[in-house]
Amino acid sequence: MLVSIFLGAFSVPSMWLEAPRALPLVTLGVGVAVSGRRLGPRRTPALALAMFALALLAKIFFNVHAYHYGFALAMPATVLLVVTLVGWVPAAIAARGGSGGFFRAVALACLLVAVLTHLEVTARRLAGKRHPLSGGADVLLADARGPVVEAALGALDGVDQGRSLAVLPEGVMLNYLSRRANPTAYTNFMPPELAFYGEERMVAALDAAAPDYVALVHKDTREYGARFFGHDYGRRLYAWVRRNYREVATFGARPLHDQRFGIALLRRVDGATVSRATAERRAAARRDNPSPEG
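and the corresponding structure tokens:
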């Protein structure tokens, strides 16, 4: 406990938050030690866990954290690390005449500080979620962006239920909360999706589906090397939206411009080309939902 207090008092939280970056090398080292029978009483299960952990870490190999994707992808490596520090290494030290118990105590103190640091960061972030969003069974707590999203949902409430909505580059939750269908097969239009499917194909899908409304939702995607949709990537998609839609409302700040959050709602321009299949689908939707258009 004294070691935990000392480490907590004389270390910065970022050190413990960044510590998982070493997991790939640590996991590889443990795997090598296990395969050489220098660690672990059961070679095959331990080696299988190490290989599984490395396979999951491959997706975040150069940016490993315990949060974001790491809550799942780094879990097997974290379990392997805990077992190694608390069980296998102390046993190996004791087998050679050393004080395995002392090593275990220090390891547990470090793990305790790491856990408490992550709990403190989690509590701070959860404390910022104070804005109820939506209602009924769908209610959730949002951060400072909540009022902006709520305003956008309020505007969509006045739109005919049969109208479709495409959200770019990300924000399919708007479709769910507003009960507006996304007429395409794509839920995200961020750099990974553009790389996987191809921007031209995504433009063609939007053109064929011709959504009635488009919502441009602020999203900073600098982690992918391109910060803003329409400026640093997705230019053809953005040009298609601006060519076929006009902005009817903006909630919060102008989206995709700076660090401030905002949502722009756009409606399809009268006279924009609509495929025959899309026109027939819309006509059927209006027959099924004869409420007045918003």
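(Above: one complete record from the training split.) The radius of gyration is 26 Å.
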